[in-house]
Design a protein that fits this description.
The complex is a heterodimer of chains A (332) and B (253). Chain A has 332 residues and is of the alpha/beta class. A six-stranded mixed beta sheet of chain A has the order 6-7-8-3-9-10, sandwiched between helices. The longest helix of chain A has 16 residues. With 253 residues, chain B is an all-alpha fold. Helices cover 78% and strands 0% of the residues of chain B. Chain B has twelve helices and no strands. The longest helix of chain B is centred in the middle third of the chain and has 29 residues. The two termini of chain B are 30 Å apart. The chains are: A alpha/beta (332), B mainly alpha (253). Chains A and B meet through α3, β6 and α4 of A and α1, α5 and α6 of B.
Chain lengths: 332, 253
């Protein structure tokens, strides 16, 4: 029922998802709420695409629209080559979707859930069973396969849910906050599984409100806030947009003011300051700046005591785009 | 064809879950059984009063109990659906190309099968008390219970998909089934009721079902209420299925 997986290199870089002006308005007693306010997106085949934003930003609503679970108020999308509005059945056949709740019954065994899901996608019982066995092997769930889902650990359960989304070998897999609630070890483990999926040719579109996750896992990402996309790019590109890199250095003999003077006029230095006895430089490209700094200090007869290079985080990106820190919201 | 295939797949899933925990079937019989043990004896002396239908206390009361079982048994099915909504099971099924009507019908068939098994148990338990059973009558009565079960469970699923929480579902379902029960003549025959109460009961489809169930248990196969109630319940079942099928295809967060 599912087509053979396309060779990765031939199809890589082609869009597997294109979204134009997607909107969703919810009517509530207090009036209309625009949960998604005109989203444009492009996800390429073979990448892990992340949707980063605080709770209530519109991530889940967007995903549910793209998975045919929720009709958009306006806008259009091409999902895995099918029109979201006119070819719902095709969209459903070609995508996998794992919601936040996961979708398994605690009273049913993992194998039974997986085979049922295959059957709902139109597979024969034999095909669904065989595919389920392979997925259990791939996700290292074979030992748990015949136990009730209620006995699974959080990580096992989430791997089962991903298997539910993969049973029909979809081209594009949507994962809604796949690692929320997992302990750090299970989270890293799941990242590995998601990378393996990409390496096998499945495009993964996931939402997250964890900065580290977006940074470590995603090839490209979009930041969404109040239903609007505020930035899009690779994690590196996004972070570079903010302020480049941060270099802090100290020199011997308390001569930091002299070091500051020697460096601050360089045109590749965006900003320089002296704080707590160390020089802080904001530069476009930290790696390229380091050798130049060493040369300049040597020319000024200054001896370097310490130097460190740090990169801005996605939190800095979010802060600059929205005026709020994502971390604060997480804590709240 | 796809509808039949998908309905069968869904039905088999829920039968497997039911077989994994068959105590629920027994628990469902418990309530009508208590009525049989602790309420029906009160009717034995009443059965001799003028206005009480003929056939003896148990042949009057047990057919009504079957209808009550159909009503209450099906009214509670929304609870399991709400749990499934919470676990994401419904969403996970709706993301596949499965027929939306199959999501309803597969569950509805499970509900019917459960009710028919429970009704059968109840009838067998009534025999030692003096219940007289006619095979054809029993089949028609079970058919009526099945139609009522399908109608009520479809409505219950629609309500569950709409309300999404036990806290609002429970009071609504219980406060609406109680007047349906009281106005059906299950507990005491409506032939004992004052005229104004009879008029209200006339608009309750279940009152025809109760009359019909009593008729078939008393070998009164020519009673026009039998066909009348089958037609009424058939129409209601179709309407309720249409409503619930829409709810399953539209279910949103």
């Amino acid at each position: 029922m599912s087509e053979p997986e396309a060779p990765i290199d031939a199809a890589a870089g082609q869009p597997v998802l294109e979204v134009r002006g997607l909107r969703r308005v919810f009517k509530s007693r207090r009036g209309e709420v625009e949960a998604v306010a005109g989203v444009d997106l492009r996800v390429n085949r073979g990448e892990i695409f992340g949707f980063l934003g605080p709770n209530g930003a519109g991530k889940t609503t967007t995903l549910r629209m793209l998975a045919t679970l929720l009709p958009p108020t306006s806008g259009e999308a091409t999902v895995a080559g099918a029109d979201l509005l006119k070819e719902q059945k095709l969209v459903r056949e070609r995508i996998g979707y794992v919601g936040q709740a996961g979708g398994s019954d605690p009273e049913v065994s993992g194998r039974r859930e997986l085979v049922l899901q295959g059957r709902l996608y139109g597979m024969s019982h034999a095909d669904a069973s065989e595919r389920a066995t392979r997925l259990f092997e791939m996700l290292e769930l074979t030992d748990a396969a015949d136990r009730k889902v209620g006995t699974y650990s959080g990580g096992q359960k989430q791997r089962l849910h991903i298997a539910l989304g993969l049973i029909h070998e979809p081209q594009l897999l949507f994962l809604d906050e796949p690692t929320t609630g997992l302990d750090p070890q299970s989270r890293v483990r799941l990242w590995e599984e998601i990378r393996k999926l990409r390496d096998r040719g499945t495009t993964v579109f996931l939402t997250t409100h964890y900065l580290e996750e977006a940074d470590a896992l995603c090839d490209r990402l979009a930041i969404i806030d109040h239903g609007k996309i505020v930035a899009e790019g690779t994690p590196e590109e996004l972070k570079r947009q903010v302020a480049g890199d941060v270099i802090t250095l100290g020199v011997t003999g308390d001569r930091e003011p002299a070091a500051l003077k020697a460096l601050e006029k360089q045109k590749w230095v965006r900003e320089a300051s002296l704080e707590d006895g160390v020089v802080r430089l904001y530069v476009e490209n930290g790696e390229a700046a380091m050798p130049q700094i060493l040369r300049l200090l040597e020319g000024a007869k200054l001896e370097l005591r310490t130097i460190s290079l740090s990169r801005p985080s996605l939190d800095d990106v979010f802060l600059r785009q929205t005026g709020r820190a994502l971390r604060d919201e997480e804590a709240a | 064809m796809k509808l039949l295939r998908d309905t069968w797949i869904i039905f088999v899933r829920y039968i497997q879950i039911l077989l994994g925990n068959p105590t629920w079937i027994v628990i469902g019989v418990l309530q009508p059984l208590l009525y049989l043990l602790l309420f029906a004896p009160l009717l034995e002396s009443l059965a001799k009063m003028p206005g009480f239908p003929s056939g003896g206390a148990y042949n009057v009361f047990v057919p009504g109990l079957l209808i009550q079982l159909g009503l209450f048994g099906a009214a509670g099915v929304g609870f399991s659906l709400i749990a499934e909504l919470r676990n994401g099971v419904i969403e996970r099924m709706r993301v596949t190309p499965v027929s939306r009507f199959a999501l309803l019908l597969g569950r509805g068939l499970r509900d019917i099968l459960t009710l028919v098994i429970q009704s059968f148990i109840l009838v067998v338990l009534g025999i030692p008390f003096g219940l007289k059973v006619d095979p054809l009558g029993l089949v028609i009565a079970l058919g009526l219970v099945a139609l009522i079960g399908l109608t009520i469970s479809s409505i219950a699923y629609s309500l569950a998909l709409w309300l999404r929480s036990e806290d609002s579902y429970a009071p609504l379902i219980f406060t609406s089934s109680l007047p349906l029960l009281l106005l059906s003549g299950v507990l005491l025959p409506l032939s004992l009721a004052p005229d104004w109460l009879k008029r209200i009961a006339d608009v309750n489809p279940l009152s025809y079902a109760v009359t019909a169930a009593r008729a078939v248990f008393n070998n009164d196969m020519g009673n026009p209420d039998i066909v009348k109630s089958l037609v009424i319940m058939g129409i209601l079942a179709v309407l309720a299925i249409a409503l619930a099928g829409r709810s399953f295809s539209r279910a949103v967060a």
